[in-house]
Design a protein that fits this description.
The chain is of the alpha/beta class. It has a single domain, classed as Alanine racemase (TIM Barrel). It is 40% helix and 19% strand. The protein has an 8-stranded parallel β-sheet. Helix 1 packs across helix 2 and helix 4 crosses helix 5. It is globular. It binds pyridoxal-5'-phosphate.
Length: 228
Amino acid sequence: MDISKNLSAVTERIRQAALRSGRNPGEIRLVAVSKTVSPEKIREAIKAGVTILGENYIQEARKKIEEIGGAIEWHFIGHPQSNKVKYAVDLFTMIHSVDSVSLAAELNRAAEKRNKIIPVLVQVNISGEETKSGINPEETARLLTELSSMDSLSVRGLMTMPPWFENAEDARPYFIALRKLRDELSERHIKNISLTELSMGMSGDFEVAIEEGATLVRVGTAIFGPRG
Ligand SMILES: *Cc1c(COP(=O)(O)O)cnc(C)c1O
């Protein structure tokens, strides 16, 4: 598995997708998703030019961050157990997965104690699948209103995970739906809420997500190979 080669290929595909949809490739940031990936491989990816890593599990991330260090941005894309929320605030520069008032309030409390302001995204269950995390689209405005008074969280945008499809084109309607939801919510001008970021697109569908407005793509397998 040649991580450097994979990364170049992904970066070029990001660039092409941006250009073909009339966007500046510099607007799109790559989050290299490193869950289950060894520190050795992560170092290789950093050497090859990765600047943001995405992790799903606090304990796993904690070990890796201790070992690899913080010269890099670490983003949290998973769902913390309540008793681990405080670590999320210590470890990560952005949290992509805020999907309830209670999680938001816990993060806010932990950040406040540490005198930090944590950038967060609201995860939306845009497909309505029961197994998926994320808040329902209809409840998102209410969550944003609650978030607007949590001074230690800085809301930057929305995140979603569409259902898995063989064909990436099938994910397009879900990416469009998230972008439209973002546009609608932006028009409400909720105090302290800025929805510039759209975190959407994974190994199988990141080009389609970019065509529909993604600013953060979360790519694991296409960089690191299949997870063991
Ligand atoms: C694992 C994971 C990814 C990366 O998935 P790949 O298909 O390996 O690119 C992206 N986002 C989330 C939330 C994940 O859990």
